[in-house]
Write a structure and sequence with these properties.
The chain contains nine helices and no strands. It is mostly helical. It is globular, with a radius of gyration of 17 Å.
């Protein structure tokens, strides 16, 4: 049992902060995110054998966190949508180019926006994004390519 606890503690130390940031953005509430993070690691404790067989332990944890977060959002029906929560995140020194970028990202189709956020905000690799979303890596590449092209088009329109 001590080995299992130390394994989960190691996973938490390595991936807990990134998962908490993700869950906080997803839910918009720190308390809910902390509860979901705890539940993610409870499931990790129960599934250490599956984690060991996973292509990426980090991706496995994001899959669990994402499912728990989405289920919590469905049950709770939050009052602040994810995009508004992201847009409301304060920057140290607000760059005037950020607001048009936030609006452009918010206008992307949901599947493209989600892949882009996993890549940019969470730093997941293409393979990890594919694992989290349960899609082939080619689909991730396609979504990211379309998202970047969509952003270029939207931001070019803003500049004109």
């Amino acid at each position: 049992m001590d080995d299992r606890i130390s394994e989960v503690r190691s996973l938490y130390d390595e991936h807990g902060p990134a998962l908490l940031r993700y869950l906080r953005r997803l839910t918009g509430r720190r308390e809910v995110a902390e509860d979901l993070l705890q539940e993610t690691f409870v499931q990790a404790m129960r599934s250490l054998e599956r984690i060991g067989k996973a292509h990426s332990r980090r991706a496995w944890l994001f899959v669990v966190a994402r499912h728990l977060g989405i289920n919590a959002l469905r049950r709770a029906r939050p009052t602040v949508p994810l995009i508004e929560a992201i847009a409301a995140t304060p920057a140290v020194e607000e760059d005037p180019r950020l607001e048009p970028m936030r609006r452009a990202i918010a206008e992307l189709p949901e599947l493209q926006r989600e892949a882009l956020q996993f890549r940019l905000r969470d730093g997941l690799s293409y393979q990890e994004i594919a694992d989290v979303l349960g899609v082939p890596i080619g689909t991730v590449r396609s979504r990211l390519h379309k998202a970047v092209n969509g952003l270029r088009g939207r931001l070019k329109t803003c500049e004109d």
